[in-house]
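Intended use. Records like the one below are meant for learning the mapping from a protein sequence to its folded structure. Do not use them to infer anything beyond what is encoded.
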Amino acid sequence: MIAYYYCSPETCLNILRNKELYLSDPLKMNDKAEIIWGIKKVMENYEHRELDCTTKKDGNLNITSEEMIKRIGERGQRNLYIISFSKNKDLLSQWRAYAKDGYGMAIGFDLEKLKINKKLSIREVDYSENIAPDEYVDNIISSNPALVAMDLPYETRLDIIIDILLSTMIDYKNPAFREEDEVRLVYNKQFSVADLLSPKDTCNEKTLDRDFRVVEDINITEYVKLPFESDAVCEISIGPKCLMNENNMKAMASHFLGITPLISCSTATYR
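Structure written out for the chain above:
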């Protein structure tokens, strides 16, 4: 699958120069509210079914949607890291929001070539309204068999369920954003309930290096570094306001990648 990463000229330069992408904590990204939106949907379904919350041992949770969101905000997470792409290489809303108001570029990647280990997965965003059917709520929250069998302390079980919810809700986004046609590359450090109970490198795959960076001059967030080979870059689309022409872009790509990907120009009439 080919998908496009919209970015500023500075970010494009750094990506090509370093042959590296950054995957960020979804709870500290611009669209973190979309992850929370999915969890709220699940929790609202759970609340409306009026489950007996007094029998905590059998898997039920004594927590409201608002309390769950608050706990997630306070607790944070260090298991999931994502980067977002679009299947559309010339989308005006993307140029405006993510590519320096059209002065930037959209780098087309072969996502399969970015999956350098089993902890990375390609997740096409689901814009469905109904994301919390009863059977889903039963399996994840009410009676997850693995959690029930372990007879864990309530707080431990709650934190594991939060990690499961975050991992699953990464696939969903509010239908209002359907135009974005988003695809996410997700790095999930832990695969299962057992992994979450004993956080460690449980598969024989190289763990991506972690670091911290400043976001929009007001926050600091953790991220992981994903190196890629030159042939993972298939195309570079030049934004509608970009000051570089096709020859400039070819020269830069050839210099840093050693190959020349397809270079295209936006047809958006945005000035």
